Batch of 3 targets.
Target 1
Amino acid sequence: MFVRPLAFSVLALAVALCACDSIAAPVASSPAGKEASITDFGAKPDGTTMNTAAIQKAIESLAGQGGGTLVIPQGTFLSGAIFLKPGVNLRLDKGAVLKGSTDVKDYPQTNTRIEGHFQQWLPALVNAVESDHLRITGEGTLDGSGTPFWAAFRTAIAADRNTKNLDVPRPRLVIIQKSKDVQVSGIHFLNSGFWNLHIYNCDGVTVDGLDIKAGDGSPSTDGMDIDSSRNVTIKNCTISVNDDCIALKGSKGPFALNDKDSPPVEHIRVSDCTFVHGGSIVTVGSEATIVRDVVVEHCKAGGPNSRGISVIRLKLRPDTPETYEDIHFKDITLDGQGALVSVQPWKQYFDLMGQPAPTRTVRNVSLSNVTGNWGSFGTIHGNDGDKIEDITFENIDVKLTPPASRGTGTILAAAAPQIVGVKNLTIKNVKLNGVAYTGP
């Protein structure tokens, strides 16, 4: 008569024990939530110890545990090229500096994407490939230690004026390739040896709150190179470099459209950024085939000692088939020097490879709601055979004072628009030095 109650009691006790175990057992953290400080793997923040191996060891450890966040704490950590793994994020804490080595041997050459093709060249200080959901965040600094790299290039140019960019190896700061859902935010980019942030063949990228600086005389220090990528948002950034602030790039040469691994650049949004110094706010080219659906808005250009920034710069390369379309700049405030627009042939390094010259098309480009002080209106003039159509300038009120002609109050010959060969040119409510401009 006591069997049933005993069986019931044992069963109840077992259930209770299981329930207690499930409540008391700690919840295991997900691999993505893991963090690893590089100091735990032997990295030293003294600015002189070479930490490449220690940092890479930390990356491999995280990757082996399913991923997580690599943390660079406060201090200056010297390193050569490091290679993030899928699932491994990077965070630079406030006061942290990942300082690039000045020895090219610390950047072992690899087959890398550069200037519209792949070749053996230096990797970046920070490299990531096929790293979906990558996050590079924090308040720290990536320092490229660029001065000796710039000096090497200037020395080479002085010795041989035919020296090309890639003849003198110089590391980039960051390259991210073939990745989806990428975020880069908050980081300070300083004195890159070459390009700063290179995004190749990525989809769904947000770049937010970067501060990118490279000193005077720093050749080829593009702020960002958006290469064969789509759905890219760039916002709240400040850029002061010695080349294009943002460059939209692709492949190059008469066979560029055969590069099926490098899709068009499309769906690009740039907003609420400040451009202090550089070749342009946004440049399309010099390597590019199809670039479309680009909006740049609510941005400022110029400031103390600012010079030479074009607002719109479209490079028309004679050896490359190109289509640039649906590109719109609006709500731009200016205070400095430069051209509002530069749509011109770009003939540096071009090579037809014995092929007939391809054609290029530029269409549906607009510049609207622009105010401030600037240097000149600029130029639109393509190569022979180029089609340039549906160009709109609207609601522009700027004072133009090119350096050679300061002090006058009328539309100066040096500042006036130079527009040739445009089909369907629309000009509405445009004032240059207070005088209405209605067209060429």
Note: The longest helix spans residues 3-24.
Target 2
Amino acid sequence: MHDEACAHYEDMIDNMMAGHQFLLKEVGVKPRIGWQIDPFGHSNTNSRLFAEMGFDAVIFARGDFQDSEKRMNESSMQWLWRPTWNHLGRRAQLLAFMMIDNIYWSPEYLDFQGDWINDGPFIDNPNNTEFNAAFRASKFVAQAKEAANHFRTNHIMFPIGGDFRYINAHLEFKNADRLINYINSNYPNVTLLYSTPGQYIDALYNANITWPVRYDDMFPYADKPEDYWTGYFSSRAGAKWQVREGQAFQHASNWLYSLKVLDVNSTD
């Protein structure tokens, strides 16, 4: 989940290549979904790179508050992103998904490790004096119905977790199991299940509907009228210079290594 504003495109490629090589070697997996939930703005260059890496989609949380509000009103929180369309066409196309309300945390009342008064364990035992399953399930279903107004299919993705969550993974999954079982048992028109970004994107593709299209980037990012996240464009110039120098040295060394590999007379 690299930065998309200040990073050089070669760094983006090298970063993804190293990660993909590790995943393929260690667990035999080739990622096909870009999970960019927390960078402060999104570039069409990055989407082009993801598409050419073989990704089917990119999912993110942070979008400009005005853009997000407009998309929610138009039910266009998912779209086909076509950067450099005039040059690359569908080869650089992928499906983009913006999370509702620009957040990647659990819905209200369902942050099982949270510190807020509405969070905590999901208690489904009616004999327990702290029983709260009926109330919290009704709140979740209401949020799901509201979210459905802003999307074009009846498949709605809700993240469960957030920053510093899953410190106690057993606790998270135990409560999520209770939530899923309770809602599926008590709400016949709602089906809740564990899923993955890949399964979710497949469901969207299989819906076989027409998606809106976007060609441009998503800068600058603002989450409020007075809060534009642009300071990091020019901050820490010294650190950025070191990154550029390191990248240049790596590029040069890779180039020299490639020449040696291609030299049939080389014995090195």
Note: The radius of gyration is 22 Å.
Target 3
Amino acid sequence: MIAARHSKARILKTEIGFTLIEFLVVIAIIAILAALLLPALSKAKATGQSTACLSNLKQLQAGYLMYPDDNAGYLPVDKAITVALGDIANQAGSWVIGNAQLDANPTNIQNGTIFRYVGALDVYHCPADKSTVTKQPGLTRLRSYSLSGWLNCYFTAYGEDLDPNTFAQDQVKLSTVRRPANVFAFIDEHEQSIGPGQFLVGQPSWALLNPQPDEWWSFPADRHGQGCNLSFLDGHVEHWRWRAPKIYESFNQNPNPGGDLADLQRLQEVTPHDKLR
């Protein structure tokens, strides 16, 4: 009887236990599965963030287009000047106020002229933008998007004084834009480039002041799979994948030959210049 019990115990131990080699095999299988699944999960997360970003731009654009209905057809003003310590900030009366890198509270967004049409702070921030407020590393920025500098834009900084009187291509009224589906409005701006609410991009008419119009003044983001998201004046939104990664160096940097230059020229084509009007 005692021998039978010992024999049964040995059988149970053999049935419920497994060896070190078997344990290592299980761990190896789990590691392989994780290696296969993590890229897919990461890609799914990135896709979700880009989709959410597009939704933000859609809502932001819808709010922007409500403004002219209440203001005799005029587009929201976008006015930036140099302020203390050389920083550039949007002024009162603009679609948004302040500087995205410096603003630590939502007041400058809420006091912008289109906020009452948008009504939600989250709409101004891309979920993939992890940048923080200057000198406050624990505080995520509130705004990731800027508006085309060719839409009722006034810019006084870096020795430039640009406004609708300087360039006829700077559109003041929505009715003057003949092909709104071909003109971008809001764009997902690079976290090192963003500041006031303006995205400045050269176009052929800038050759009057600058013999090299092909320059990146403001710089687009590439946080969505080497691409960014844009809205257009007819209300639709698009995801653009860049041919070259976007590495910020400075304001008005020269594009690298090849893909980077092609990306800049693609963006120039959706500004209100003579070729489209």
Note: The chain has five helices and eleven strands.
